[in-house]
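4.2 Preliminary Data

To establish feasibility before requesting continued support, the project team ran the inverse folding procedure on a target of 437 residues. The structure was first converted into the token representation described in Section 3, and no sequence information of any kind was made available to the design step. The complete token record follows.
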């Protein structure tokens, strides 16, 4: 038997000596002598069988603290198999549809630059209908995620596509969502989406008025903050069945004001169909560099510190910090999900949208570029990352954005996609235990 690589031994001033196993999500407090013995077993100084009673040895085996020679590797193979099975087992076709790549904003961290600004023409719309119908005998329905550019720049195109979907597509729409900056929302648009059952709408507010207007700025330089706030007020009333997600992209410039912003927005939309949440700024474009990433993105430690700050201030529940087994699944890893641009090119990731050499095919010809498909499906997830395979947190980490690893493969761009480190994990567990008392 050997020490599992999914064990984390640590000392905490609040918990004392402890052992966490990320495979079993188990936490055990231990005394100093046991801690020292476990360290020696981990480091190969002594063997477990000669230093632990038969009963304790059996319990450690059941808890996957001690494992067979190949058990950890077999566990990884099982996780990878489950991920691959999920990638090919969906009964729903996923379509991320970009009716245009044009946008009325000029956000400095946007990965879409110098892209065509045309809208999807009628012949491309018809090809999209044919493409979806090609799956009609194999799937139970299809999902829509309206994306861009700014999709509402091409609202007439969206209306045209809905008409075609309802009249000509032989699969039902099972879920629909939209990523929009929210500036162009009006009464007619809200009433249309309420009638056509938009399930979710994501709108970004990147800080207080001053900060937001620096990062979510209109191309003409005018303020967008007030109008977006007013539009969310309106949408919450006119679209009661649509969940509106208000997202703040946390970076170096706005992290210190999020607590106040979260309270302001939560108070404003209390009791409404509005969810306030945050994500972290990502510069995952293949046209970036490591220095640029470091200039805008938070480090792993800084992200952990921010999550702890939110928990201590009641924005996140402390119990939510306790690790969970990873079940994350991205569009790029779903064999039955595609991104389509206004010209009919298909992609596996919206970070590639508009870059024709990164397309995997077209609506007319189908999937033809299997090199890029295999990059996303096989080469770029955590199970193909040597660092991840040796990491004790692999079972509880989503592995980060696949496009970062592709950037390393294609252009040698260094990356760090770790969700947490050991220090962060210990602090998460401390807060969780504090909340459980």
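Position-by-position output of the design step:
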């Amino acid at each position: 038997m050997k020490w599992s690589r999914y064990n984390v031994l640590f000392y905490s001033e609040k918990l004392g000596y402890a052992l966490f196993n990320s495979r079993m999500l188990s936490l055990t407090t231990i005394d100093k002598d046991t801690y020292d013995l476990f360290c020696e077993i981990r480091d190969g100084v002594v063997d477990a069988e000669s230093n632990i009673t038969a009963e304790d040895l059996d319990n450690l085996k059941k808890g996957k603290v001690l494992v067979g020679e190949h058990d950890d590797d077999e566990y990884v193979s099982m996780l990878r198999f489950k991920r691959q099975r999920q990638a090919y087992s969906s009964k729903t076709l996923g379509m991320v549809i970009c009716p245009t790549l044009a946008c009325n904003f000029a956000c400095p961290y946007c990965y879409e630059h110098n892209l065509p600004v045309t809208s999807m023409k009628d012949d491309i719309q018809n090809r999209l209908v044919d493409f979806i119908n090609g799956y009609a005998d194999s799937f139970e329905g299809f999902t829509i995620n309206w994306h861009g550019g700014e999709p509402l720049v091409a609202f007439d195109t969206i209306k045209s596509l809905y008409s075609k979907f309802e009249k000509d597509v032989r699969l039902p729409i099972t879920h629909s969502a939209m990523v929009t900056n929210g500036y162009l929302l009006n009464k007619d648009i809200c009433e249309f989406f309420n009638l056509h059952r938009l399930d979710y709408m994501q709108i970004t507010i990147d800080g207080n008025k001053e900060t937001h207007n620096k990062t979510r700025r209109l191309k003409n330089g005018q303020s967008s903050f007030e109008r977006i706030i007013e539009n969310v007020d309106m949408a919450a009333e006119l679209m009661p069945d649509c969940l509106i997600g208000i997202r703040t992209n946390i970076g170096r410039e706005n992290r210190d004001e999020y607590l106040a912003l979260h309270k302001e927005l939560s108070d404003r939309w209390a009791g409404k169909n509005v969810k306030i949440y945050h994500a972290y700024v990502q510069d995952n474009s293949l046209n970036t560099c490591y220095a640029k990433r470091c200039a805008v993105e938070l480090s792993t430690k800084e992200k952990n510190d921010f999550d702890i700050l939110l928990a201590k201030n009641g924005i996140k529940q402390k119990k939510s910090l306790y690790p969970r087994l990873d079940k994350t699944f991205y569009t790029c890893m779903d064999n039955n999900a595609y991104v389509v641009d206004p010209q009919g090119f298909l992609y596996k990731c919206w970070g590639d949208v508009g870059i024709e050499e990164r397309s995997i095919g077209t609506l007319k010809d189908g999937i033809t570029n299997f090199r890029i498909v295999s990059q996303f499906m096989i080469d770029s997830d955590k199970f193909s990352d040597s660092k991840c395979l040796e990491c004790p947190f692999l079972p509880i980490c989503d592995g980060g954005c696949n496009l970062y690893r592709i950037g390393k493969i294609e252009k040698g761009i260094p990356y760090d996609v770790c969700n947490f480190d050991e220090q962060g994990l210990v602090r998460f567990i401390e807060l969780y235990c504090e909340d459980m008392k």
